[in-house]
Give the backbone structure.
Amino acid sequence: MICFQCQQNALPVTESESTLGRRAALGKTLLAASCGVVGWSASFSPASGFTNTVVDDLSPKLALDKLYEGNRRFAAGMPLAENRDMTRVRELAEGQRPFAAFLGCADSRVPIEIVFDQGFGDLFVTRIAGNVASSENIGSLEFGTQVLGARVLYVLGHTECGAVRATMQGNEVPGQISGLFQHIRPAVRTAGGDVNLAVKNNVQNQARLLAEASPVIARLVRQGDLIIAGGVYDLKTGIVSAINVEV
């Protein structure tokens, strides 16, 4: 039996995805196989009848403005905290239409929905230490943008990032943690030992990689259906400072 939710969350496997690398294609194939979904159509409706008029009426720029307005409320201690009750949960049971997708750090001090004063179903969030654009995250963000229709793809770093600092120190570490370092080193090389400058550089690098490594995301940007943006969250003030990502 194929579950409805698995059908929504399965990613298409096509020849063009070879540009993302064998690992990404294999991961998507396994995901499709595990859900019993093969030959998933790229034209699949993201909501299967579910609509969100708020998102439908948002341009990419207005969606980005909505994020920054929410962060200003949060940092000022006056959040609306909307869409965080069981009524909203029940509304979303049939589908989702988030207005923004995120590549953020896994740090527990940066809960993205709260930082931007959003609730259930508003944001499609992927999180990984160092907010690096791994092939797996790129695949997820393709789903959040092309299929679910997010208007903004946002890369969010934060001050004093542990993954960036560890990369800068270059010490031997246990397990697979060091696998993240290769993604962050280019930002560290140009930071002159300044952790927070490396954080900023890393946001710019990962945003650029999202635009260059994914033909799906690049096309959405080119068509004007998506904005790629970036910023750094200040752990002390709660403010997200926008960064010019130049993609």
Remarks:
- The radius of gyration is 18 Å.
- Residues 1-44 form one domain.
- Residues 195-213 form the longest helix (19 residues).
